[in-house]
Amino acid sequence: MKIVITLLIGMLVLSGTVSYAQRTEPENPQIPVVIVVVGAAGTPEYAAQFAEWAGFWEKACIKGKANYVSIGLDKTEGSSDLARLQNILMNESKQTSAALWLVLIGHGTFDGRTAKFNLRGPDISANVLADWLKPFLRPVAVINAASSSAPFLSRLSGQERVIITATKSGFEQNFARFGQYLADSIADPKADLDKDGQTSLLEAFLTASNRVDEFYSAAGRLITEHALLDDNGDGLGTRADWFRGIRSVQKAMDGASLDGYRAHQFYLVCSEDEMKMAPTLRTQRDKLELEVMKLRDSKETFSEDEYFSKLEELLSGIAQIYEQTDKVDNLSP
């Protein structure tokens, strides 16, 4: 119950791995899947860096007991990496409560009209990837850590999706370091900004963005990459310097909720208390939490009594979910 109270107060204050080819057991639809695509490196130096970043993701998946799928690190035999990615996505569950993470590590290009992620062999464009992801009704996080990645955000944005790009424009074409810092932060307890025992995708995004700024500042160089995060479906994205703590202070367009709320519900390595919660209850809890945030953002449109009445109802629902979790945990042998 202490955890429940801490969570509720916090909301008011803020007012191992298996490669795809080696799977021998049926896929568990309740386990997150992380697909890491390493693109064409171009040089041995970049190849070593990209392999290291992918290794960070693999370690996080092992720690968080998520399915890890990699493309681009093996020898190029048979089908192209583009065809492999398409095949993997076709065979993934389209409707489940478990999140699908797609991480693109490498270089990107933008010709003023079309943004692409560079693969070994044929590249993949933002438009093609958007078509491939259309059937997915499950929670999806796409992280394009490449240069010129920003156009992917507007094409892939949608409900139940978190989209992160390493750049704010397709014309930020220099090598992007954001992917390194994000991969290093995703399972790092030091990136747990709200100290709830787990590092969310939002917290990793904020930590990585700050580390990018620190790198360029220490090197005395002009910053050539500005990461964006979109999780409210408006396709605009929010930069890390638009957040105060873990809350965006920018106004969203057309009455959309602020960016960051949904991304703060994506975890690769969950706390012990989070792991105790059944997936169905976690989904219900997440929806209620988002309702709390939406209500808080529109507080000025309600009378004081109406606002607190709605808030009490939502918080009561969240508390009941935690009580159910505690009951199940106490009955466990």
Layout of helices and strands:
Elements: H1 2-13, E1 33-38, H2 44-64, E2 67-71, H3 81-91, E3 100-105, E4 108-110, E5 115-117, E6 124-125, H4 126-133, E7 140-144, H5 151-156, E8 161-165, H6 178-185, H7 201-219, E9 228-230, E10 243-244, E11 247-248, H8 272-276, H9 279-297, H10 304-331
Parallel strand pairs: 1-2, 1-3, 3-7, 7-8
Antiparallel strand pairs: 4-5, 5-6, 8-9, 10-11
Helix pairs in contact: 2-6, 6-7, 9-10
Task: Describe the model.
The protein is an alpha/beta fold and 333 residues long. It folds into two domains: 16-270, Rossmann fold; 277-333. It contains ten helices and eleven strands. Helix 2 (44-64) links the parallel strand 1 (33-38) and strand 2 (67-71). Helix 2 packs parallel to helix 6 (178-185) and helix 9 (279-297) packs antiparallel against helix 10. Residues 1-26 have low confidence and may be disordered.
Number of helices: 10
Number of strands: 11
Mean pLDDT: 89
Distance between the termini: 20 Å
CATH architecture of the largest domain: 3-Layer(aba) Sandwich
What is the CATH domain class of the largest domain?
A: Alpha Beta
The CATH topology label of the largest domain is Rossmann fold
Largest sheet, strands/sense/barrel: 6 strands, mixed
Strand content: 5-15%
Helix content: 40-55%
Summary of the model, kept short:
It is built from 10 helices and 11 strands. With 333 residues, it is of the alpha/beta class.
Give descriptors for this structure.
333 residues, 6-stranded mixed β-sheet, 3-stranded antiparallel β-sheet, 10 helices, Rossmann fold
